[in-house]
Amino acid sequence: MSHDSKATRIGERVLRPESLMMGFGYDPVLSEGALKCPIFQTSTFVFESAEEGKAFFQVAYGLREPGAGEIPGLIYSRLNNPDLEVLEDRLCLWDAAESAAVFASGMAAVTTSLLAFVRPGDVVLHSTPLYGGSDHFLRHVLPTWNIEAIGIPAGERPEPLEASLRERIGTRAVAAVLLETPANPTNALVDIAAVAALARRLAVPDRRPVVLVDNTFLGPLWQRPLQHGADVVIYSATKFIGGHSDTIAGAALGSAEVMAPIRGLRTFLGTMASPWTGWLLMRSLETLKMRMTAAMKNARHVARFLNEHPRVERVHYLGDLSSDHPMFDVYQRQCLGPGSLIAFEVKGGEAAAFRVLNAMRLVRLAVSLGGTESLAEHPATMTHADVPYDQQQRFGITAGMIRLSVGVEHYDDLIADLANALDAA
Ligand SMILES: Cc1ncc(COP(=O)(O)O)c(C=O)c1O
């Protein structure tokens, strides 16, 4: 018996995303009754008639509005594919978004989304520090098209910068704002609503800045930027959404209106994910809440241990913000939990940090995050090696800093590994 695969209620009860991750958006009747969505490993789809093909293309290329209840037909896997469509429907549930697009990588999501809105002569505002790949695109690629990227430091109120930004921007349009909160690797927060309001005050008539928030670190469980003034939320799905350190992918989500140009550009840049990646991410979404919750709980124990360790100078962990911290109110308003990323500074600089990294056994030395296994790295010489030294200092990326992505192992085992490694510091 067929049922409405997009039903989100039983009677009065609105079902939660974790309850819908196993079946939402997938109708077994369309796939020989298979319980799980198969991998549609196909480049193209057969039309039942030439008229059908014409009708599908008219909708896909915006030549006519879809009729009431008309579902866009399957054409070609660069435009649409069932594995991506079902995945996109499920991702929308977590962020309460209308529309989503899945990409081949987080960088494909960042670059395609930005390129949908920027034009030569525009300005892009962004928080600093940013993930190295995004930072490189803004500082080295966009300027070749006469687009200037201007940084706003994370961890500080944006309002005092208004006059100097106004002067620097002049008559140019602020086309987009790219924020990353919490910042990588320092966990400094950005007040999304405050920066969005500032960008709107700096806008020229008829060009409303599009606010994009890279929510890779906390989302979608512990932060929902669309509820705080963001227009587009972006993920490196390589991290928590994929969650097993075995696939590269990205996603962007927002209203149908804001996503239309992003989805359109994805078709022409060809930056979509493959069906196999889509299938892997659907499988991962079934355990997203469990994984992110387990990792967050572990991180609390690990942070407590690190805070008390004599060889650790400082711990940057959102769960420890005191009520007199300048970003405490932003944390309270914007975040639903502290997540599982911790940066800590070892006494003795780079040499001591390297000794600790080299002595870890359970925690692996690698530059990603959000997987089931705990990973550690040295931002100053690895993920943020491209950030000039003076800026590293300004952002607080010190020589002794280690970034730790806490996984789902037993926290006592992680603490034993860290205790052993810190003995080497
Ligand atoms: C915050 C953030 N955004 C974007 C990216 C880029 O994602 P990907 O490596 O999937 O292209 C990363 C990767 O580390 C990241 O940490």
Strand order of the largest sheet: 3-9-8-7-6-4-5
Radius of gyration: 22 Å
Percentage of β-strand residues: 15-25%
Going by CATH, the architecture of the largest domain would be 3-Layer(aba) Sandwich
Q: Low-confidence runs (pLDDT<50, min 5 residues)? A: none
Short description:
This protein is an alpha/beta fold and 425 residues long.
Structure, described:
The chain has 425 residues and is α/β, with parallel strands linked by helices. The chain folds into 2 domains: 82-285, Aspartate Aminotransferase, domain 2, CATH 3.40.640; 289-422, Aspartate Aminotransferase, domain 1. Helices cover 35% and strands 15% of the residues. It has 14 helices and 14 strands. Strands 3-9-8-7-6-4-5 form a 7-stranded mixed β-sheet, sandwiched between helices. The N and C termini lie far apart (63 Å). The mean pLDDT is 96.
Strand and helix map with partners:
Blueprint: E1 9-10, E2 13-14, H1 17-20, H2 50-60, H3 82-95, E3 99-103, H4 106-115, E4 123-128, H5 132-141, E5 148-153, H6 162-169, E6 174-180, H7 192-201, E7 210-214, E8 232-236, E9 250-254, H8 256-269, H9 275-285, H10 288-308, E10 312-316, H11 328-334, E11 341-346, H12 349-359, E12 364-365, E13 375-377, H13 389-395, E14 401-405, H14 411-422
Parallel strand pairs: 4-5, 4-6, 6-7, 7-8, 12-13
Antiparallel strand pairs: 1-2, 3-9, 8-9, 10-11, 11-14, 13-14
Helix pairs in contact: 3-9, 4-8, 10-14, 12-14
The protein binds pyridoxal-5'-phosphate (PLP).
